[in-house]
Amino acid sequence: MSWLLLSIVSRAQQSAFFVWETDFEHALQTAKKEDKSVLLYFSGSDWCKPCMKMKQEIFNSVSYKSYAAQNLISVLVDFPRYKRNALPNEQIRQNEQLAATYNEKGIFPLAVLLNASGQIIATANYKPGGSLPFLAYLESKIKPKNQSTTHSFAAMGSPFEITIVTSPEVNANELIAKAELEIRRIEKLISSWDHHSQTSKINTNAGLSPVKVDTELYGLIERSIKVSRLTGGAFDISFASINHIYTFDGSTNDMPSEEEVSRSVQLINYKDILLNPLDTSVFLKKVGMKIGFGAIGKGYAANMAKKFLINNGVKNGIVNAGGDLCAWGAPVNGNSWKIGIADPSKEKPFIAYVDLNDLAMVTSGNYERFIFIDNVKYAHIIDPRTGHPVRGLKSVSIVCPDAELADALATAVFVIGAKNGLAFVNQLENVECLIIDDNNKIMLSKNMRLNEE
Dihedral of the CA atoms 52, 53, 56, 58 (nearest 10)? Predict the structure, then answer.
């Protein structure tokens, strides 16, 4: 909201927080921390009549005080002449240095607008007319502050949230809406529930014939197979072949029989996904095979939404794709994005925080989708090599530059287990992890850094 539209009551409340600063270095530090500009007011408070008028008409007004409380650090640089108003020697030295730097001609009164680095933005002399023209002039010179815009929606069976930080003149809501359309486009492309999607066509033609697909989907499948090779099959998009025998929505209290599991596992093998780069076709070797992107799709969607926003000039933002996060730039306060790692025991909201800056973080856990059978907890994460739910861990969080890779690796490390998972991650470049086992023991990869505040 523009300061010109503030109510009189609101302005009076804000003006109560206005104070004159006298320590210039402290003023600069505060300006940097609070993303504000600095205004130096050179005054001869007890001898300069225009200075007295400027103070009375402008700086003592509620309008100036309310505006300054929100946007400025105001520094009084006074040069009184009468002994009774004498300043401490240290203050005199500072004011003389400021005058030598910012007011060489010795103009009184003089207002000098600086950025938080101490560089001059503008200067202003006293002109009769009150505070509003003066404030309008300042506002025209101060670079508009960035603002944060957030939009939430549901996609891919999960809650999504996009936050971007832009200047006020940018139509942030329109950009986020277009990023949402990009996510929905990807959802339609990779969905195995949409009978018209290319993924469904691949599954329908399993064991029968190759299906030519878009280069985008072909590339995603190709990268998925590379992760499967890297993880020894702990991550495998053909795990979808076993999905139908498990339900983790509370609708059943029975585990599938070993015969059902064994029969389904025979259809899980990334090596049976055949790619032809000449025509970008995909062929599943066995009838009944299926591929699905539940363990990589949201990370890919987050990547693509981020890419769209960056290509459209958004320098700061975060995409939360159902817990698959990718962040770039910084929030409004200029710090790193501070992301909480959920406490699986739910004794507290978060066990720790991670500072993300041009990084992604994905957490796989057993604390949201699971079933209890004979007092044994079974998580929804299935080991594609055995067909059985994974046990022993509560959560795995992966931090790396790419949300798609983080999504796949979080699942893979959960399947591999704590000891081997840590050893695996420690061999990877620019990939870190945090693992919590069933005994609430927290394990970190060698370069994982947490912010516990």
Answer: -120
Structure tokens at 227: 């992760």
* Residue linked to tokens 């591999």: 416
Look up the pTM and report it: 0.71
From CA 266, how far away is CA 211, in angstroms rounded?
22
Helix (H/G/I), strand (E/B), else coil: 293? coil
The Cα 27–Cα 6 span in angstroms is: 26
pLDDT tens for 227-275 read 999 999 999 999 877 766 666 555 556 676 677 777 878 999 999 999 9
**pLDDT digit string (tens) for 323-353?**
999 999 988 877 789 999 988 877 788 888 9
| Structure tokens, 343 | 């406490």
Q: Kindly indicate whether the domain formed by 147-177+295-444 is annotated with CATH number 3.10.520.10.
A: yes
> What residues contact 11, with CB distance under 8 A and at least 6 apart?
3, 62, 63, 65, 66
Residue that has been written with the tokens 């946007």 in this structure:
71
In 3D space, the residue among 190, 195, 231 whose CA is nearest the CA of residue 214 turns out to be 190
Q: CA 428 → CA 89, 262, 328, 400, 432, distances in Å? A: 60, 33, 22, 10, 8
SS3 324: strand
CATH of domain 193-246+255-284: 1.10.3980.10
pLDDT tens column, 57-76: 999 998 899 889 888 999 99
**In the chain, how long is the greatest CA-to-CA distance?**
100
User: Domain spans of the chain?
Assistant: 3-141, 147-177+295-444, 193-246+255-284
Residue recorded with tokens 């929606």? 153
What residue type is assigned to position 58 of the chain? I
Domain 3-141 has CATH 3.30.420.150: no
The DSSP secondary structure of 140-190, one letter per residue, reads HHSPPPPEEEEEEEEETTEEEEEEEEE-TTS-HHHHHHHHHHHHHHHHHHH
